Amino acid sequence: MIKGIGIDLIELDRIKQSIKRNPRFVQRILTRGEQNCYDRMNNRRKIEFLAGRFAAKEAFAKAAGTGIGTLSFQDIEVLPNEYGAPEITVESYASLSIWVAITHSEQYAVAQVILEER
Q: Is 22 helix (H, G, I), strand (E, B) or coil?
């Protein structure tokens, strides 16, 4: 049974400007594991990756019905599985199956999350 659905759309330029204004923005959004992936990418891919993770975390918080605030960006981790597909891990939601899709265009990143009872 589906417990929640969330979606988020973010402009890549907004992420780029946030990094310029506050260099610690990356550390605020990404977990240590996510930062390890981020650090291995070129500049264009870094913006897409960060925007995708930002959108996925916002979409998760919407699906959970809490919004960011009750959950922090650091509580939600989005890492690639062995095939490169994103997977979300949130300790306090381990009893649910979490489905995530992330996509990018030249201007936007979009993520959708579905929470399902196991």
A: coil
Residue type present at position 11: E
The per-residue pLDDT for 44 is 87
pTM score, two decimals?
Answer: 0.94
- Give the bridge partners for 110, in sequence order: 9, 103
Residue 116 CA to residue 118 CA, distance in Å, equals 6
Pairing of strands 86-89, 96-104: unpaired
Say if residues 99 and 1 touch (Cβ distance below 8 Å): no
Residue 82, annotated ligand binder? no
Residues with a catalytic annotation lie at 62, 104
pLDDT for 63: 97
Mean pLDDT value of segment 7-15: 98
58 annotated ligand-binding residue: yes
1: its two tokens: 């049974």
User: Which DSSP category does 14 fall into?
Assistant: H
Per-residue tokens: 10 = 């973010």
Q: Which two three-digit tokens encode residue 37?
A: 């992936």
CA-to-CA distance for 39 and 62, rounded, in angstroms? 28
The tokens for 78 are 């989005």
Q: What is the pLDDT of residue 45?
A: 94
